[in-house]
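User: Please fill in residues for this 145-position structure.
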């Protein structure tokens, strides 16, 4: 069924729920698990937020993303699943779709938390919605409240 599953993982409550749900699917189908964490590009942060690029801050942020990714991989491995993780930099949807194509994923799993205000929905957009539009395979969106 789903031989290769790619989980877009960020360590948030929505990501943790997606990891748990994904773990059950993977155990059932004896799937190969791949986790991806995507750091925003420093250039886009500078352009949007107007701050100056600092290599030390970037290295600390990268280490934080790597630790979150390693934690997710470890949880899956402790459950008896073969899991690999990759840390990528760039636009979330582009990087997730690129990696899904690269590993020939059969399913992408992503966590989603409903945004309360229209301003949040307008400003932040929806990674899960964009993934559905651009994904080369099925997408499972795990909802948290």
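Assistant: Residues filled in for all 145 positions:
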């Amino acid at each position: 069924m789903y031989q290769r599953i790619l989980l877009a993982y960020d360590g948030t409550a929505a990501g943790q729920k997606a990891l748990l749900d994904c773990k059950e699917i993977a155990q059932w189908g004896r799937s190969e698990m791949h986790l991806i964490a995507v750091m925003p590009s420093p250039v886009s942060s500078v352009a949007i937020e107007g701050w100056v690029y600092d290599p030390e801050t970037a290295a600390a942020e990268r280490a934080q993303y790597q630790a979150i990714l390693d934690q997710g991989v470890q949880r899956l491995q402790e459950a008896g699943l073969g899991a690999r993780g990759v840390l990528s930099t760039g636009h979330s949807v582009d990087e997730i779709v690129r990696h899904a194509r690269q590993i020939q994923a059969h399913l992408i799993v992503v966590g989603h938390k409903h945004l309360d205000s229209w301003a949040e929905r307008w400003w932040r957009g929806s990674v899960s919605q964009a993934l559905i539009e651009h994904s080369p395979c099925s997408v499972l969106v795990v909802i948290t409240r």
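For context: The helical segments are 13-29, 42-49, 55-78, 92-103, 118-124, 127-134.
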